[in-house]
Amino acid sequence: xxxxxxxxxxxxxxxxxxxxxxxxxxxxxxxxxxxxxxxxxxxxxxxxxxxxxxxxxxxxxxxxxxxxxxxxxxxxxxxxxxxxxxxxxxxxxxxxxxxxxxxxxxxxxxxxxxxxxxxxxxxxxxxxxxxxxxxxxxxxxxxxxxxxxxxxxxxxxxxxxxxxxxxxxxxxxxxxxxxxxxxxxxxxxxxxxxxxxxxxxxxxxxxxxxxxxxxxxxxxxxxxxxxxxxxxxxxxxxxxxxxxxxxxxxxxxxxxxxxxxxxxxxxxxxxxxxxxxxxxxxxxxxxxxxxxxxxxxxxxxxxxxxxxxxxxxxxxxxxxxxxxxxxxxxxxxxxxxxxxxxxxxxxxxxxxxxxxxx
Length: 358
Fold this sequence. Notes:
The protein is α/β, with parallel strands linked by helices. It is built from seven helices and twelve strands. It folds into two domains: 113 residues, Distorted Sandwich (Spo0b-associated Gtp-binding Protein, Chain: A); 199 residues, Rossmann fold (3-Layer(aba) Sandwich). The strands form three sheets. A six-stranded mixed beta sheet has the order 8-9-7-10-11-12, with helices on both faces. A three-stranded mixed beta sheet has the order 2-1-5, with no helix packed on it. Strand 3 and strand 4 form a beta hairpin. The longest helix is centred in the C-terminal third of the chain and has 55 residues.
């Protein structure tokens, strides 16, 4: 409340913030706050001894790093990608003042959704049984479950590639895609949302092709790449803009070399082969792979080359980002100097005109 007689202003209500904390999990948040209701403190009334009321205490909701905050309509409010990032989700109401007839205004009240997305340098993209889990265990220290049935991975598996100079790169083995994932079939959106938070994509395909079950159609390695690209495009076409590598796995199988040469021919001249496929299989934009590496997660063939390609690609991407940031900073500095010079020139002109008048 305000203080009408002396024109005192009441304190503003506290705000509600979502704050990223290092060792926080969504389960801890749910256990600690089972009601899932968060209320900030009210501002203090204006009084003779303190005409300006104090602001109410803010409320902080601790969440893990990697949270995406949306409102009840699904609109993104913001994302928390590093420790201590914060987002204002509900603002406290104004304290009573002359404009409000000294009555306080209500603060914001809203329903929010917290969605945790994985953050990794590299995300493995492939259909089930492409050998992603085996590949992750070869290139990193991760120990994922590995079996000869399609859906081995049903939750994201994180591993770290360790280099001789102690450089570390995080790799996420994500649940296998299936055709129709963009419509939330199979693991669907649970898979695709994690890809959004990776810096680079590593496509993993089985050189012998893929067939989910006896009821589904067999797909060649080239068809597999087209379908994976199409699924990403239909979910979010921005995913196709990410840097991408291609690991052609299971090169230890019979006739793998011949199939690999055929695949390379198809990837180098995709338009010559696209007419053979149904329109709904063909993406608007085919993926451009920075490197194509034949590997075998069983024998270890090509594993070191793959690790080197991953690092080189990420380093180049980081270098381009640094260069873009430097250019932006330089442009801002030039604009700032231009404005400053213009203001000084204007002052000089005004001073000169005053002298002329005198």
